[in-house]
């Protein structure tokens, strides 16, 4: 009995590609990383946020207009412009209804806040049930009539959430200008704080005890790093110059040649030696010249021998280590050192202060109205 194979078990090799499947090996669209999709917002919540931001904006606008029109400044301006009758009509007719409508809106905000608090407790949005009023403190305080201006924070939070979801709440030029002025204020505030801190620090550096303590603590914490840097510089700059003295080049023979010439001149300028050699007939002058030449060779050979013994790689490196260690562990109770470090610190603070005083916001195009 033969059993036929199922089509699902052996799929055909010449199956057609799916509609969204590319058969071109050069097509790299499927290999490119896909951008993360924004989560779809809840339509009901989105609609509610839009309604609330509109309602809060209207409420704040009416509060602002009412506060302006009820002020003494508006009365004076209306008197100058001969609009006192219109202002009086507003104050006697529209002011009380607007205050009543504002009171009902405040009650609505209180009820809406309590309802959202209950929903947050039910859904366990926060770690503890009483965290809600602390997280939404601006909404709680905005329910008080004297602090109704804090409702603007709620509108800003809703607008920011809508903007993050991809909805353009305000035109992009407005957003750019708002960001510019926010950065301007933050930069000016931070600059004032930093400049005040630098001024206070300069005042502290004028105290000798404070200055000495700063130097001791700075050098004391970085002695190993100072020694390491000095040793690196000495090995890089000084050690090759010392090793050149052992070379047979012109630079290496300079000291040996000078020492040899000095010995030769010393022998030539010794009158007693010349007088004794003149007593030897015929060979006296020849011995004198040979003696001077031998003295020069002896001086050169002595210098070369000393260089080879004293300036070998191990001795030079040990010398560099000793110098670096000695400089790194120098006594900080030194007037010249204190003055040098104080000048370095003062110059660094001056450069930093000059950089802080540069107002970066002036170099942006936002000021071109």
Can you describe this structure?
This protein is mainly α and 369 residues long. The chain starts with 42 loop residues before the first helix and ends in a 13-residue tail after the last helix. It contains 14 helices and no strands.
Short synopsis of the structure:
With about 375 residues, the chain is mainly α. The chain is built from 14 helices and no strands.
Straight-line N-to-C gap: 92 Å
Beta-strand fraction estimate: under 5%
**Helical stretch tally:** 14
The whole-number mean of residue pLDDT values reads 75
Q: Which overall shape is indicated by the principal axes computed on the Cα atoms?
A: rod-shaped
Topology diagram in text:
Blueprint: H1 43-69, H2 72-80, H3 84-123, H4 132-135, H5 137-142, H6 151-164, H7 172-205, H8 208-221, H9 223-243, H10 253-268, H11 271-278, H12 284-310, H13 313-328, H14 335-356
Helix pairs in contact: 1-3, 1-6, 7-14, 9-13, 10-12, 11-12
Features:
369 residues; mainly alpha; 14 helices; disordered N terminus
């Amino acid at each position: 009995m033969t059993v036929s194979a199922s089509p699902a078990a052996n799929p055909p090799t010449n199956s057609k590609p799916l509609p969204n499947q590319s058969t071109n090996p050069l097509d790299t669209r499927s290999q490119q990383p896909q951008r993360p999709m924004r989560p779809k917002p809840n339509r009901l919540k989105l609609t509610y946020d839009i309604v609330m931001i509109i309602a809060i904006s209207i409420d704040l606008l009416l509060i602002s207009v009412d506060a302006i029109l009820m002020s003494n400044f508006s009365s004076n301006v209306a008197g100058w412009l001969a609009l006192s009758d219109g202002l009086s009509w507003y104050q006697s007719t529209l002011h009380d209804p607007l205050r009543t409508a504002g009171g009902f809106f405040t009650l609505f905000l209180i009820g809406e806040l309590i309802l959202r608090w209950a929903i947050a407790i039910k859904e366990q949005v926060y770690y503890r049930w009483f965290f809600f009023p602390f997280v939404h403190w601006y909404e709680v305080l905005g329910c008080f009539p004297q602090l109704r201006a804090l409702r603007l924070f709620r509108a800003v939070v809703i607008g920011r959430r809508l903007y993050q979801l991809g909805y353009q709440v305000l035109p992009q030029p407005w957003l750019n200008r708002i960001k510019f002025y926010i950065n301007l204020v933050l930069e000016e505030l931070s600059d004032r704080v930093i400049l005040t801190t630098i001024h206070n620090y300069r005042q502290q550096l004028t105290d000798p005890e404070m200055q000495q303590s700063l130097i001791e603590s700075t050098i004391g914490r970085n002695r190993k790093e100072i020694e390491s840097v000095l040793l690196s510089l000495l090995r890089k700059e000084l050690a090759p110059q010392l090793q050149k003295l052992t070379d047979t080049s012109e630079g290496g023979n300079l000291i040996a040649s000078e020492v040899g010439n000095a010995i030769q001149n010393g022998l030539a300028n010794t009158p007693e030696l010349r007088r004794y050699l003149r007593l030897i007939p015929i060979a006296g002058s020849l011995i004198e010249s040979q003696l001077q030449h031998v003295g020069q060779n002896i001086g050169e050979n002595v210098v070369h021998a000393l260089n080879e013994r004293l300036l070998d790689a191990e001795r030079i490196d040990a010398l560099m280590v000793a110098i670096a260690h000695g400089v790194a562990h120098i006594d900080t109770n030194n007037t010249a050192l204190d003055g040098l470090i104080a000048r370095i610190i003062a110059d660094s603070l001056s450069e930093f202060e000059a950089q802080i005083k540069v107002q970066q916001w002036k170099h942006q195009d936002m000021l071109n109205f």
